[in-house]
From TrEMBL:
InterPro entries: MFS, MFS_dom, MFS_trans_sf, OPA_Antiporter, Sugar_P_transporter. GO terms for cellular component: plasma membrane. Pfam families: MFS_1. This is Major facilitator superfamily MFS_1. The lineage of its organism: Bacteria, Bacillati, Bacillota, Clostridia, Peptostreptococcales.
Length: 434
């Protein structure tokens, strides 16, 4: 096979590798947002409070958060192929346990296993992107990955509500678990960690940046982690991601459906349509901001512009008409909210581009902790508000008080976007050290 034929094969097969992994990521997003839609089913089945429900939702995010650095280490050492295979397998088993749970304890166990399993998928995809795609394509590919993954979030709104109504929530989660097991098998069978594993040239070779013998050597794992954690340029992206994503999950994955039903008196089969607009907006925005960033060769400016609009949308939701904007505003408001929340997509690229190029898995995993830190701690804060004031305040005032925390998280996180180091879409770590 000639060099040109090898390059063509690489350019074709990388989409197969990415395609299988991104199907696993669709499952990740489905589980991330699904609980909000089945909240009442869970309350009725297990007789739980708002705080317990929020903690059940957070049981996905805690292991996800704590696994991000191990996920980066696994992606850099074990490889994306086995990492995603084992993770998706565990998530499938967790979903089945959740669907069959005889008590709330077993529901927590199932949710924990799901969070543990899916926690490794995204970092592994970023690692694959760094091996199979050009550095100049990283922002676009991260956006495409988030776009397709968010389709899982879309499925976890109105489509999930309809499926649950037809087959019950238990059957639905068992079914998703079985699908996950099939995807795990495909990951092991199809995915390869690098082009070299198939006898193909590396991306660096194709771009003429280095010969294989000149490839940068990855520092030891401990040293790699210390380098990322002690690099001050890592942290602005981390904290921006924390508030932006935590607030979005609090709305679309936990309390949004209850807000729409209790404040606007919408039917339970109609309310998810509005949240679907937000998740669809995030999907489209994720692709758009990645493409815009790569074309502009800028990271910071798109983050600031999108982030400013995102902060304004939360201000509208909380302050307009006492926390109850006119219902005619909700579809465009939620869509724009999701679209501009995608500012966090660039945080992964920024984290990768300010750290050693050979530790892309660890650097992106550290940044990724931020979003899931916010997603783990913010919904239970709202849950405590609902439990404390649910019998005191009427629904509009109650949700306004709760969503005020989301607005505050977003506003503070937006300030960190101004501290992000502009990389102009290239790795600046070596340049900085030179």
């Amino acid at each position: 096979m000639t060099q040109a034929e090898k390059v063509k094969k690489l350019e074709r097969y990388r989409w197969v590798v990415w395609g299988i992994l991104v199907v696993a990521y669709v499952i990740v997003f489905f589980h991330r947002l699904a609980l909000g839609v089945v909240r009442q089913d869970l309350v009725d089945t297990f007789n739980i409070t708002g705080t317990t429900f929020a903690n059940l939702g957070s049981m996905y995010f805690y292991p996800y958060m704590f696994m991000q650095i191990p996920a980066g280490i696994l992606a850099d050492s074990l490889g994306a192929r086995k990492t995603v295979t084992y993770g998706t397998l565990l998530a499938g088993l967790g979903s089945i346990i959740f669907g069959l749970a005889p008590s709330i304890l077993w529901a927590f166990v199932g949710r924990l296993l799901v969070g543990l399993g899916v926690s490794v998928v995204f970092i592994a995809i970023l690692k694959i992107q760094s091996q199979w795609f050009k550095e100049s394509e990283f922002g676009t590919m991260s956006g495409m990955t988030s776009f397709v993954g968010n389709l899982g979030g879309v499925m976890a709104q109105t489509p999930l509500a309809l499926v649950v109504a037809a087959f019950t929530w238990r059957t639905t989660f068992v079914g998703i678990g079985l699908i996950s097991l099939v995807v795990a098998f495909l990951c092991y069978w199809v995915v390869r960690n690098t082009p070299e594993e198939m006898g193909l040239p590396s991306i660096a070779e194709i771009e003429g940046k280095e010969r294989p013998s000149q490839a940068p050597q990855r520092p030891p794992i401990g040293e790699s982690l210390v380098r990322v954690l002690t690099n001050p340029r890592t942290w602005p992206s981390f904290f921006m991601f924390t508030g932006f994503f935590g607030a979005f999950i609090s709305l679309t994955g936990a309390w949004g459906q209850s807000y729409l039903i209790e404040v606007y008196d919408l039917p339970s089969t109609v309310a998810p349509n509005y949240l679907m607009a937000a998740t669809l907006g995030l999907a489209i925005g994720s692709f758009a901001i990645g493409k815009i960033s790569d074309v502009m060769k800028r990271r910071k400016l798109p983050m600031i512009v999108f982030g400013a609009i995102y902060t304004i949308t939360w201000g509208i939701l909380v302050f307009v008409n006492g926390g109850k904007p006119p219902i005619a505003m909700l579809y465009p408001l939620f869509f724009v909210m999701g679209f501009t929340c995608s500012a966090f997509v660039l945080s992964w690229a920024c984290g990768k581009e300010v750290n050693h190029p050979s530790i892309a898995g660890i650097s992106t995993s550290v940044v990724n902790i931020g979003g899931f830190l916010g997603s783990a701690i913010l919904p239970p804060i709202l849950g405590r508000v609902f439990d404390a004031y649910g019998g005191v305040l009427e629904p509009t005032a109650l949700f306004q008080r709760a969503f005020m925390y989301c607005f505050a998280f977003v506003a503070v996180s937006f300030l960190f976007a101004f501290l992000v180091k502009e990389t102009h879409c290239r790795n600046i770590y070596i340049e900085k050290k030179a």
